[in-house]
Amino acid sequence: MANTQTIAHQLAEILSKYHADYIEAHIEESQTSHITYRGRELESIGKTTSVGGNVRALVSSGWGFTSFNSFSDLPRRVELAVEQARLAGSKENKLALVAPVVDTILTTTNNNPVTMPLAEKKQLLDQYNDIIWKTPKIQTSIIAYGDSFKKTIFLSSLGSYIEQDRSDIALRLAAVATEDSEVQQVGLSLGSRGDFDKVTSLHHQVEQMAQHAVELLSAPQVKGGEYTVVLDPVLAGVFVHEAFGHLSESDFVYENEQLRDIMTLGRKFGSSELNIVDDATIPGLRGSYKYDDEGVPAAKTYLVKEGKLVGRLHSRETAARMNEMPTGNARAINYRYPPIVRMTNTYIEPRAASFEDLIGDIKEGIYAKNWYGGTTSMEMFTFSAGEAYMIRDGKLAEPVRPVTLTGNVFTTLANIDAIADDLDMNQGGGCGKGGQVPLPVSNGSPHIRIRHCLVGGR
């Protein structure tokens, strides 16, 4: 990366020559590969490399931003960002103060999954596709694999100079079964920070996924209504990320008066057992890093502690506007975008109960696992579970068709009355916001029990 280091040092000198309240720049070099199947056929396979950068300038309250994939005429790139900021800014700027950082955080060179031959990756995915298609009544399937290795340099007019790299792997499989007019789908989603072993040896899980899609064709449908529901760590993690985590991103909060009234610090949202955390400092998770894309150190941030709202996620700008501390949550998917407030690794902390404790006193309820999809609108949500089972007299009973869960996130948080001790982090998928998708994140939870949950059915 010697060439981009040289460019970064040149850019640092250029930044000092322009008058703005603040200027920052990113230089990025990335490698990616992907393999996708649709049905029996290989749809797309390839490998790409890219190099580029951006400059972001603040003048008064206005931001200017320019991205580029050519390093010719760097002074003009900086000048353009400053000119845009002057046009946009008319009020006093607000940007939380942070200390400048000079640091280098590089992983081992053998942690780059992109260097692994595409033929070896395809051979594994061919095996998974063959397993799916050996299952009777499968109508179609999807396999989407992607990996990346990215090196970045962040520099600012404050004097920061930070080199970081990161690897990422994501794999999503889905099997769709049909019979007569019935259609059922089951999916499997995994990921890692560059460890390809995490997506190997899944042959049995892929077989179970395809078989379960077929089994669901003849499974009964739940009668719609209000139930006590137990969520597994995957679905509970998606719930806390989608339904609550996005409401904790402060760019949403300070721009929305209604949300500011709802998300008041100190407000009680759940029992004293409920703690919700966003933590980018956990080693090895897809949402982890040492510094965010504004050069702010990563942090562990409690959003809810003992049932009360105690924090939210910030960039330097949102922290200053709301008179709070920056949390290191400004992230961009790549150099083509400016950083915005994003989650990292978001989860519900475990407590002392066992899974058996959670279901033991339920006369009739539902155990919902995995996820299929969902939507949120402010505090309202609808999620589709990937699997569901009846709970009868404190025991797991027959499988049923996947269910939808609907409700108000704050009412639902208040209705969580038991939290297990088995925290698990889901590394699959990616987060989307502001056109930047898929951003590597993880989310998780122990098993949780929710009273009075509205379940869609027949």
Number of strands: 24
- Straight-line distance between termini: 59 Å
Report the sheet-strand fraction.
Answer: 35-45%
Mean pLDDT level: 95
Largest sheet: 7 strands, mixed
Rg, alpha carbons: 24 Å
Uncertain residue segments: none
- Helical proportion, percent range: 10-25%
- Please state the structural category: alpha+beta
Question: Number of DSSP helices?
Answer: 10
Global shape: globular
- Number of individual domains: 2
| Quaternary structure classification | single chain
Key traits:
22% helix, six-stranded mixed beta sheet, PmbA/TldD fold
Overview of this structure, please?
With 458 residues, the protein is an alpha+beta fold. The chain has two domains: 217 residues, 2-Layer Sandwich (PmbA/TldD fold); 232 residues, no CATH class. Helices cover 22% and strands 41% of the residues. It contains ten helices and 24 strands. The strands form five sheets. Strands 1, 2, 3, 4, 5, 6 and 7 form a seven-stranded mixed β-sheet that branches. Strand 1 and strand 2 form a beta hairpin. The longest helix is centred in the N-terminal third of the chain and has 16 residues. The termini are far apart. The model has no long low-confidence stretch (mean pLDDT 95).
